Amino acid sequence: MKPSSGHWNGPSDKSPASPSTSLKPPGTSGRGKASSARPLPVSIIIPTLNEATTIEACLAQFDWGSGGSSGRGGSDDPDGRDGSIEPGSRDDPDDRGDTGGSGRVDGPGEPGGPGKTGPLEIIVVDGGSDDGTPEIVRSRPGARLIESGTRGRAVQMNAGAAASSGDVLLFLHADTRLPVSWRTCVTESICGRGMAGGRFRFDVAHAGRIYRWIAGGTNFRSRFLGITYGDQAIYVTRGAFEAVGGFPEIQVFEDARFADRLKQAGGLDWIDEAVLTSARRWERRGPVRTLLLTWLLRLLYTLFIPPRFLARFYGVVR
Q1: Is the pLDDT of residue 239 over 80?
Q2: Which terminus of the chain is less hemmed in, N or C, by CB atoms within 10 Å?
Q3: Coil, helix or strand at residue 157
Q4: Model's pTM, two decimal places?
């Protein structure tokens, strides 16, 4: 499996019944084509804990630059290469593909100008970083910082959702880049196919064969077994998020449990365009060891071992 280049490969053809929590912007009806509709107002929610090495590059992907919309590096490069994390390397926060933009994104309620795609809200919820992460976020004029009094990804994401104003919530890890056309894909998923939310195809920013296997296994697990984790950039309508009660505030596998609830609330869509995630989590312990640990923890979780116990072995790499 080759690393994704960002090309659109077409979403799943499966079209479940439209849920009551779906959104229809002006000019759309049910599952009609959403490509001509104004993209939905989206709130990007990024939980952080000591992410000084990744958060600036993460935020830079939303720069408008020279009139582009957003995605890897903030460019409309159709191949998705501008500013992406290069396969075969670790996170490269200096290779962001900035094109001289101010870093500003349209705030809630602001009309999109030429080349822009409407309101986009960026919220970073920090869990008590001591490495300068909050200062980096404050330096970005298009980002809003919330300092959570409680540490924990689920708690932080729920706090970000409560403070947000978008019709759609997209939860993004600080070391993950979205594909260039993510906004169009999300709008089509919700308005065109009537889904309550969904996730993206997964890819790792490393050209090693083991990482190709990891990406392939992750996508098989998610698409055919329904097990979805947060590094696939889960998105959801506000109505569906509230209907399922947000993320369960447990220490690990909060994303998988949330995705399971979302399926019951109106469908969890699959976007067959890849998000690109740093290989650092696998490099930290080694890819094989990390895989075995993940499988073991998932098995124990399935056997109802308390998440607070499993969290001792999971670590804090976010």
Answers
A1: yes
A2: N
A3: helix
A4: 0.74
